């Protein structure tokens, strides 16, 4: 893993102006470990609005708005496309056609609204304690990026494109380093297990997305990566909040 690979990961996962070079992209797609490593930085940045003196709902709204300003809407667009595809009756080929369709349907709207509102509600639950919120947001972001790395290492692309350039470079054995890189996020709330609960829950939800994509679509593409990232983040954060408040 090189700094070029990490630069490529930041450039791919966020709108931070690190520059988009072919060298950085090639280094990144050969280094899935950079997904969770970038998650630490992204999570820390996303949590910054929690430290602004504001009512908890306002802080949560700022976190969600800042999240999408920082990371862009590419990944949530993938979630929207998946939402439309999954409500289609018919063959996997027909659903794949919907993934590529730019028309926004009811499935996309409902999926995005539920996801964004659910994410905001999770942030409200930790906004009263910014230090706890910071740790849980980082754990959730690392979990989401570990989920993406998992799809890169075990997924099969359904067509040529961005997903194929990522999955073609890695295999199941390459998942060891991303998993190891995510370990600090599991102990970020030590001795409380909330960090570990968040990371595991997010990863499991990404695997559910993978199984659904494989059975309903025949494999993965860029939209599936984005959807897995968005779903895993929200699930991980809710799981972390539940663990923190109930255990």
TrEMBL record:
GO CC aspect terms: plasma membrane
Signal sequence annotation: none
Key word Transferase present: yes
GO BP annotation list: cobalamin biosynthetic process
Membrane topology: Multi-pass membrane protein
Transmembrane segments: 33-52, 58-76, 104-128, 194-213
Compartments where found: Cell membrane
EC number of the protein: 2.7.8.26
Keyword Membrane assigned: yes
Catalytic activity: alpha-ribazole + adenosylcob(III)inamide-GDP = adenosylcob(III)alamin + GMP + H(+); alpha-ribazole 5'-phosphate + adenosylcob(III)inamide-GDP = adenosylcob(III)alamin 5'-phosphate + GMP + H(+)
MF annotations from Gene Ontology: adenosylcobinamide-GDP ribazoletransferase activity; cobalamin 5'-phosphate synthase activity
InterPro entries: CobS (IPR003805), TAT_signal_bac_arc (IPR019546)
Record keywords, A-Z: Cell membrane, Cobalamin biosynthesis, Magnesium, Membrane, Transferase, Transmembrane, Transmembrane helix
Pathway noted in the entry: Cofactor biosynthesis; adenosylcobalamin biosynthesis; adenosylcobalamin from cob(II)yrinate a,c-diamide: step 7/7
CC cofactor: Mg(2+)
Domain of life: Archaea
Task performed by this protein: Joins adenosylcobinamide-GDP and alpha-ribazole to generate adenosylcobalamin (Ado-cobalamin). Also synthesizes adenosylcobalamin 5'-phosphate from adenosylcobinamide-GDP and alpha-ribazole 5'-phosphate.
Family named by the database record: Belongs to the CobS family.
This protein's name: Adenosylcobinamide-GDP ribazoletransferase
Organism: Halovenus aranensis
Gene of this entry: cobS
């Amino acid at each position: 893993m090189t700094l070029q690979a990490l630069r490529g990961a930041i450039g791919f996962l966020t709108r931070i102006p690190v520059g988009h070079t072919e060298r950085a992209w090639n280094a990144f797609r050969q280094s899935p470990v950079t997904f969770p490593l970038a998650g630490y930085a992204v999570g820390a940045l996303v949590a910054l609005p929690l430290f602004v003196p504001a009512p908890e709902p306002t802080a949560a709204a700022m976190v969600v708005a800042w999240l999408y300003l920082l990371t862009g809407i590419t990944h949530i667009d993938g979630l929207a496309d998946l939402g439309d595809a999954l409500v289609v009756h018919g063959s996997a080929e027909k659903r794949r056609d919907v993934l590529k369709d730019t028309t926004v349907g009811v499935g996309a709207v409902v999926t995005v609204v539920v996801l964004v509102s659910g994410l905001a509600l999770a942030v409200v639950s930790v906004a009263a304690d910014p230090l706890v919120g910071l740790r849980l947001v980082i754990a959730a972001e690392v979990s989401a990026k570990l989920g993406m790395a998992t799809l890169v290492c075990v997924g099969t692309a359904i067509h040529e494109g961005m997903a194929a350039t990522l999955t073609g470079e890695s295999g199941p054995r390459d998942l060891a380093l991303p998993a190891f890189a995510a370990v600090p996020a599991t102990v970020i709330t030590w001795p409380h297990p909330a960090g570990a609960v968040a990371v595991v829950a997010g990863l499991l939800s990404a695997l559910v997305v993978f199984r659904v994509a494989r059975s309903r679509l025949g494999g993965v593409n860029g939209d599936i990566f984005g959807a897995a990232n968005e779903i895993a983040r929200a699930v991980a954060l809710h799981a972390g909040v539940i663990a923190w408040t109930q255990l």
